[in-house]
Write a structure and sequence with these properties.
Length: 187
């Protein structure tokens, strides 16, 4: 059994539908259940099948979570660089935005948070499957923020994709690449 934590973490994962934003948030939430007493995963998306704005709020804590709705979070992970301006107001002062560097055209307007640019899509394409960029960003988040042992995410990936060996292997490789990227970013 994993040792329980006494902290609260909140993150907003955001991007465009079809990018795996909701799946990355759900994997994080399910993994958090093994370490934290209270976990919330709240998705929000438009009516479009793909391409519309979507986000999920993930909160994990050992204290009660009063509401799954938050306007701003400690960390915002933006899976599509073109959406930085849309989600910049959602990070708390002193917080962090991890943003996909591909498609990033706008410059940071606020200076009261840390901006970390991640080439997740470029790495995913070099690995042969662009759809795994979400797990690269998730791995980077887990590594940089250090709020959850990476082993819990690995366990959740195995649980979720246990019958799909090829997909599991691709997802594990992407997640591990993100962990490595995060370690190098922290230095």
């Amino acid at each position: 059994m994993e040792e329980k934590s006494n902290s609260r973490t909140d993150v907003i994962m955001a991007g465009l539908g079809g990018m795996g934003v909701l799946m990355a948030g759900q994997i994080l939430a399910w993994a958090a259940l093994k370490k934290y007493e209270h976990v919330s995963w709240l998705p929000s998306y438009g009516v479009e099948k793909r391409g519309g704005l979507c986000e999920c709020i993930v909160i994990f804590s050992d204290q009660d979570i009063a509401s799954p709705l938050i306007d701003r979070a400690q960390t915002v992970v933006v899976f599509d660089g073109s959406q930085l301006k849309t989600f910049e107001s959602r990070v708390l002062p002193g917080g962090m935005i991890l943003v996909e560097s591909s498609g990033l055209e706008e410059e940071q307007e606020r200076r009261d948070y840390e901006l970390v640019k991640i080439p997740g899509l470029e790495i995913a394409v070099s690995m042969g499957i662009r759809q795994i960029s979400n797990l690269i960003l998730l791995g980077t988040y887990v590594s940089i923020r250090d709020t959850m042992p990476s082993e819990l995410i690995e366990e959740e990936l195995k649980r979720r994709f246990r019958t799909k060996k090829t997909i599991l292997e691709c997802n594990q490789n992407a997640f591990r690449r993100g962990l490595e990227l995060g370690r190098n970013t922290k230095k």
